[in-house]
Amino acid sequence: MRERVPRQIPARLRPDTGNQCPSPWEADRLRRLSRSQVADRIEELGALYAAHSGSAACEEEWRTRTFVRRLVADTRRPGFSLVVAENGSLTACAYGFPLRDGLFEVRAIVVPRRVREQSTSRDWNLARRLQRRLLVDEGHATGLTLVDRTELRTLAALRSWGWKDTPASPHGARLPDPRHVLLLAL
Known about the structure:
Blueprint: E1 29-33, H1 35-40, H2 42-52, H3 57-74, E2 81-86, E3 90-98, E4 103-110, H4 113-117, H5 126-137, E5 142-148, H6 152-160, E6 164-165, E7 179-185
Parallel strand pairs: 4-5
Antiparallel strand pairs: 1-2, 2-3, 3-4, 5-7, 6-7
């Protein structure tokens, strides 16, 4: 019996990944976690958030505790769903829950900085894969997320992943709100 040799992709066909951008050739595996799995890995999810939140050191602990507290509370919501990306270890996550009127609130997308900044328009971008998997697994075609107006980098990243600002109210000018409401239609 011949030994099976894994198929090698010729170097000329592989993108030059180096440290330049995330590559579809080194894709992270996506999978859903159950509520009990989230509870078992809550410290790991908190550490992931701390590593990728981009917070100043003085804010990091406070923001991480806030993220974990909100995640624990959100696991109790009906329809809660969390998708993680793994490549030997936990590399990213996204979670949310259904709202009425067929909307699904994407509460958080936690990805490394390189994913937020490079190849953001590509379908294989990790954040795009996470948000699509989260919505499709739950049978929703439209996602909704709220972002503080002061989070300019987060707004830019979400917009680059296909999120759009909500249309203006048909009843006239909107009242000032401390948050942007963004929609993602698949």
